[in-house]
From TrEMBL:
Main location: membrane
Pfam families hit by this protein: B_lectin (PF01453), PK_Tyr_Ser-Thr (PF07714), S_locus_glycop (PF00954)
Lineage: Eukaryota, Viridiplantae, Streptophyta, Embryophyta, Tracheophyta
Keyword Transmembrane in record: yes
Keyword hit for ATP-binding: yes
Spans through the membrane: 329-355
Gene Ontology CC, one term: membrane
GO molecular function terms attached to this record: ATP binding; protein kinase activity; protein serine/threonine kinase activity
Limits of the Protein kinase domain: 388-672
UniProt name for this protein: non-specific serine/threonine protein kinase
Keywords from the named record: ATP-binding, Disulfide bond, EGF-like domain, Glycoprotein, Kinase, Membrane, Nucleotide-binding, Receptor, Serine/threonine-protein kinase, Signal, Transferase, Transmembrane, Transmembrane helix
Length: 673
């Protein structure tokens, strides 16, 4: 089988050309007829993309604006007279397909499967679909550092659950939406992908299929086209499409990155189990859960209809009291009858007190059976001993210091916060933290273990966070944390805030979100701490009056500084500032910069965004530029002066994950105006 290069001249598409979904002009075809660009049907609408043409069924290899809604039959795809490629979806409504500043002179659907826009001559390509891969790579298509290949959803071309990228000379695959995806479920050295001579790498950072995509066998009069696709199930596969005399193709899997589909992390979704017969995955729910959607891998949810379904039993039925086996006590008894009588009395009295103690404990437990967790009450002496006389100070805030300690029972390391402020504010601080943190339980919130309230002494006991604060990581480290870790930390923080705003029992405004109050545990999971300004919102209440001082200047929303009614959007603003700090690894106010324009981070970031110079924000660091742009846009949306223009934390998470389109942010108001 010989490999031949593509020699056909491109068929040029002239300015002013148009396509329509419902007539004979719905696509532009390559010279060989193997590839087409235009409208293809999807669900109840249409999408725009490139597909491999076959009478046995077309195969979509690229989709434009894949996360935007499908378009209707009355949409027009237009290559305008001024050289722009766009969709007209209604009067005055248009969607750009090719976002390029330069105007094109012509376009073409090439035999390689690459749709291109040409400049002044047909050899000057100013835009090409190969630069923006979706879920498939074709021959001659580079896959470089910063590029991402994302699987599609089962029911639409939108970004699915898995992605593939390059990192340190390796090709790696991750799940998108798992809470923790630090380790790839598949990895391989880029230089090892040479199966059948069809996959190769130019260097440690660029993957390409064989540069000549189309091969032929003259004896069999057969044409073969290869593609590599990250499928819906998260497995990267190499396919061949063999065309004979007719335009009917035979599709074969030539290579698969993973043999057992259950090796794909998160394939079955949350709370689900995966089993495999070698080729197909079978998903089932863990006991007590039911499938969200039996027709696709969506995970499972708890099998009760509402909160009452979980509380329908009497408290006593929640706990099982088991009689322990008898413990034999070997006693050396005196032979006298008096000794025996004394021991019997002693045993009887002991049994009575033990019984009364157990009954008391059981009653106390029953009274709190509806609570998820019970906070432990410590004495001051307990905590003084645990901290060795409050010897090792971890940090200090406006309401007191935090000390490291160890609980002897279980040898657990703790952090003890001793409230030292004035009685009025200290009382409010203590009551707020007790009321709020004691009822919140989330992997991205620092857990409150207990408290001490002994006279004027008020202390809180937290889980110990071994890796310090986000401020230490971003601003005080010798080198920047790697990009992937920063992206994960940003999502951790966003999920913690979302829980406070929408998922916990009482909706909460945190009120003090900044890097010093974001702590990192031993696995570098980011967790929100310091609820000293937290506000609980009653049902149907949307805001509360701020009593904020000046300690969080730079992170405070404008409405807080003006002592106006505040809402959860104030936390969104603070998160936006923190997000931009995570991106740039610098504080929002820094006078040790090269130019005055860089002093205020938010203003500088917006200037770089408008000038399309985002690479300045990361100082030559190797990052995913698409993710960088997405994070910057989200951060700028969050810091809008008007609270109504800020996104919800739910939408922030969806945008950061890449599952929701990020609109272009307007100019934010400078923080220190």
């Amino acid at each position: 089988m010989g490999v031949r290069a593509e020699t056909a001249e491109p068929k040029l598409i002239k300015l002013g050309s148009s396509l329509f979904p419902h007539n004979g002009s719905s696509s532009w075809v390559s010279p060989s007829g193997h590839f087409a660009f235009g409208f293809y049907p999807q669900g109840t609408g249409f999408a725009v993309g490139v597909w491999l043409v076959s009478q046995s069924g077309n195969t979509v290899v690229w989709t434009a604006n894949r996360d935007k809604p499908l378009v209707s039959f009355n949409t027009t795809l237009e290559f305008t007279t001024n050289g722009k490629l766009l969709l007209r979806t209604g009067p005055g409504e248009q969607i750009t397909i090719a976002d390029v500043a330069e105007s094109a002179a012509s376009a073409s659907m090439l035999d390689s499967g690459n749709f291109v826009l040409f400049g002044d001559n047909s050899s000057s390509i100013i835009w090409q679909s190969f630069q923006y891969p979706t879920d498939t790579l074709l021959g001659g298509q580079n896959f470089s550092t910063g590029d991402i290949l994302s699987s599609r959803k089962t029911e639409s071309p939108a970004i699915g659950d898995f992605y593939l990228s390059t990192s340190d000379g390796q090709i790696v695959s991750y799940p998108y939406n798992l809470a923790v995806s630090e380790d790839p479920y598949w990895t391989v050295d880029a230089r090892d992908l040479n199966d059948m001579g069809l996959l190769s790498s130019y260097d440690a950072f660029t993957l390409t299929l064989a540069s000549n995509n189309i091969s032929s066998d003259d004896a069999k009069n057969e044409t073969i086209i290869y593609r590599a696709t990250l499928d819906v199930d998260g497995i990267f596969r190499l396919y061949s499409h063999s065309f004979g005399n007719s335009n009917i193709s035979t599709v074969s899997i030539m290579w698969s990155a993973i043999k057992n589909p259950c090796d794909v992390k998160g394939l079955c979704g949350v709370n689900a189990l995966c089993s495999s017969n070698g080729t197909n995955a079978n998903c089932s729910c863990v006991p007590g859960f039911v499938s969200i959607n039996r027709e696709k891998y969506s995970g499972c949810y708890r099998s009760f209809n509402n909160e009452e379904g979980c509380r329908g039993q009497e408290p006593e039925s929640i706990y099982n009291i088991t009689t322990l086996r008898n413990v034999k006590l070997i006693l050396i008894l005196a032979s006298s009858l008096g000794s025996i009588a004394f021991l019997c009395a002693l045993v009887a009295m002991s049994s009575f007190f033990i019984y009364r103690s157990q009954v008391h404990r059981y009653r106390k437990l029953s009274e709190t059976a509806m609570e998820e967790f019970t906070l432990r009450s410590f004495s001051y002496n307990d905590l003084e001993k645990a901290t060795d006389g409050f010897r090792e100070e971890l940090g200090r805030g406006p309401f007191g210091a935090v000390y490291k300690g160890t609980i002897a029972q279980g040898n657990q390391t703790i952090a003890v916060k001793r409230l030292e402020k004035a009685v009025e504010e200290g009382e409010r601080e203590f009551q707020a933290e007790m009321a709020i943190i004691g009822r919140t339980h989330h992997r991205n919130l620092v857990r409150l273990l207990g408290f001490c309230m002994q006279g004027s002494r008020k202390l809180l006991v937290y889980e110990y966070m071994s890796n310090g604060s986000l401020a230490d990581l971003l601003f005080n480290g010798e080198k920047r944390p790697i990009w992937r870790e920063r992206v994960r930390i940003a999502l951790d923080v966003a999920r913690g805030i979302f829980y406070l705003h929408e998922e916990c029992e009482v909706h909460i405004i945190h009120g003090n979100i900044k890097p010093k109050n974001i702590l990192l545990d031993d696995s570098w999971t980011a967790k929100l701490s310091d609820f000293r300004l937290a506000r609980l919102l009653r049902p149907n209440q949307t805001g509360t009056i701020s009593r904020l001082g000046g300690s969080s200047r730079g992170y405070s929303a404008p409405e807080r500084q003006k002592r106006m009614l505040i809402s959860v959007e104030a936390d969104v603003y603070s998160f936006g500032v923190v997000l931009l700090e995570i991106v740039c690894c610098r504080s929002n106010l820094d006078i040790n910069v090269s130019t005055g324009d860089e002093i205020l981070l938010c203003s500088w970031v917006y200037s770089c965004f408008v000038a399309r110079e985002l690479e300045k924000l990361v100082e030559g660091e190797e990052v995913n530029m698409k993710t960088l742009e997405r994070m910057v846009k989200v951060g700028l949306l969050c810091i809008q002066d008007d609270p109504s223009l800020r996104p919800t934390m739910k939408n922030v998470i969806l945008m950061l994950e890449g599952t929701m389109n990020v609109p272009v942010p307007p100019s934010p108001t400078p923080l220190f105006s």
